Amino acid sequence: MTVAALYDVHANAPALAAVLADGAADADAVVFGGDLVAGAWPRETLELARSLGDRAHFVRGNWERYVAERRDHAAVAWLLERVEPDELDWPSSLLLDGVLYVHATPQRDDAIVLPPWRDDDWEPFTAPFTVCGHSHIQYDVARDGRRIVNPGSVGNPTVRPAAWWALIDGDDVELRTTDYDTDATAAAMGETGWDWLGFVDELRNPYSLEQIRETL
Known about the structure:
Helix content is 25%, strand content 22%. It is built from seven helices and ten strands. The strands form two sheets. The protein has a five-stranded mixed β-sheet.
């Protein structure tokens, strides 16, 4: 089966619409790998994901957890005006067609994992093929009988302004990017009232890999 892995959409509805139009909507299944609604258009993004019906599968990210916990944070309060926590009651992991989907690692939804990773990031979970996100950096790395794929971020890109995702068919992985009007999206995002996490600036000027490594 073909699976479109769409991670870290961060409520960027125009980016998600572009990815779905670029072939993701044609997949047998679409996995939303967490941090779907934390951003400028949470309601619109959630409804767009749900429009896929039974083909849509959801994994909880750290921001869905923050909303469920009703954390004392201005961004969480803003999101709670637009989505209900029970709408985001998703599992922390999903096993689909032999592939394990998690937001960051099986143990933590907020771990930053870049290649090369530490073995204890993944123990005692021994899935030979895992798809993760959270770092917003796209990669496909195999080591010691274990393969880790990060599709990158649909809505909050690194490296260059585009929507990053992956198409998975068994052992075949196609790392994809979809171009869309990021300048217009950044301008519209700035008008929504979403003022957190620097998404507007980062959509215009994504972090390079070197900048990301310097922050870790």
